[in-house]
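ok posting inputs for the FDM job
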Amino acid sequence: RGGKEDSRGALVVLEGLDRCGKTTQSNRLVANLESLGHSAELWRFPDRTTSVGQMISSYLSNKSQLDDHTIHLLFSANRWEKRSLMESKLKSGITLVVDRYSYSGVAFSSAKGLDIEWCKAPEIGLLAPDLLVYLDIPPEKAAERGGYGGERYEQLEFQKKVGQNYQVLRGPTWKIIDACSPMEEIEEQLQNMALDCVKTCQEGKPLSCLWS
Ligand code: FDM
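and the output
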């Protein structure tokens, strides 16, 4: 192991509450990795471009109503429809920086009262991140940042529950960054974590699946 044939890109996932800065930081990370000569792509879930993604988008903007279980499974299906592309990109050496993943799926749906194990089940077998970074922000601070755009989940009380569920999910491999730090500091911490991870994946760390 560790030969050139095992070299691959890294799966880097950013998670956190709405307004924690995930999107800004994912963009910067991709730009920074590319400027250091790594090939990297920015992905996000939900991926609103697919037909499943359009159903999700319409639900999030309150243009349609769906049963809580149904929308949960659609979010999961939206990841499953991208799984094989994700795997082939990683194997071709591209690092994927993903803005939200299965952890959002579980934390948000279980905030509505769905059983957490039930929520985790459809995610089994999706690719596990090589690096999972949680941008930690108190829900009150996130709400102060303003710009809750009025989508379905963008309310303080709901975000508090989501935050508690992220805590339940949090495992020893999670990397936590204080999302209240200056943007440049967050950017640098994230870049250092990602570079370490890219290196171990280049050296042939095998891909693994959720929930590991
Ligand atoms: N969300 C996101 C879920 O409820 N489940 C999921 O599986 C994912 C990926 O969708 F409120 C929620 C989280 C957020 C909303 O996300 C849309 P973006 O990052 O604002 O597009």
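notes: The mean pLDDT is 96. The chain is about 45% helix and 10% strand.
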